Amino acid sequence: MHEKLEKTDINDLVECAAAGNEIAFSDLLDRYAPLINRSVSSFRYCGMESEDLSQEALIALLYAVRTFRSESGVSFGLYAKICITNRLITTAKKRAAPVGSVSYEEERERSDEGANDPSVVLGDAERVEMIVRSAKKELSGFENRVFDLYLAGYTAKETAALLSIGEKSVSNALFRIRGKLKKLLS
User: Fold this and answer.
1) If you ran DSSP here, which 8-state letter would residue 46 be given?
2) Residue 74 and residue 129 in contact, taking contact as beta carbons nearer than 8 Å
3) Which run of H or of E encompasses 50?
């Protein structure tokens, strides 16, 4: 098992990892493994091996570490989730593109436009953050705790264990949260 840093603040860990501290990055990877696993599992039917998807998600996490700016007002967890999701979507689209329709260079240029541009990613993150803040106002205290863990990538089973409650209670809370989000977005 690897050594862990004493720092528990995510922003401090991100800053250390961005500066090249491998232990800090390893700690971040441990903390965000549930998010990566959940993201990868949602793309399991895109025609790629889960190991390849996991590598893409890991690259996206590294990208998130290197480009994250805490002064943006967006949490690192949300920023990382957006970076990982965007990377997996781009990868899945490349995989699904018909062979020979465009050259590799053209496809790469097209898919890279905005996908890794921090201003585009931060703009998306700001919109998502605004929606999350609005949703949190509508949620109960319990639903907010469940929602935070959901956004961090934890499964219902993991959330239940963390909150010392039944998995069914978490599933019910997630169902109510989805309903409130749908109502908020409509």
Assistant:
1) S
2) yes
3) helix 50-67
Nearest to 91 by CA among 106, 77, 67, 107: 107
Residue 182, domain member (yes or no): no
Domain region containing 26: 1-103+110-117
Q: Distance (Å, rounded) from C-alpha 111 to C-alpha 108?
A: 5
Q: Write phi, then psi, for 140 (nearest 5 degrees).
A: -75, 170
* Domain contains 180: no
How sure is the predictor about 169, in pLDDT bands with cuts at 50, 70 and 90?
very high
- Overall average pLDDT of the 164-181 stretch: 89
Number of neighbouring beta carbons within 10 Å of residue 140: 13
Nearest to 12 by CA among 73, 76, 60, 84: 76
Which pTM does this prediction carry? 0.52
User: How many structural domains does the chain have?
Assistant: 1
36-53: per-residue pLDDT in tens?
888 888 877 777 788 888
Q: Does any domain span residue 160?
A: no
CATH number at residue 20: 1.10.1740.10
What is the band of 31 on the pLDDT scale with cuts at 50, 70, 90? very high
Stretch 80-107: mean pLDDT:
69
Q: Is residue 184 in some structural domain?
A: no
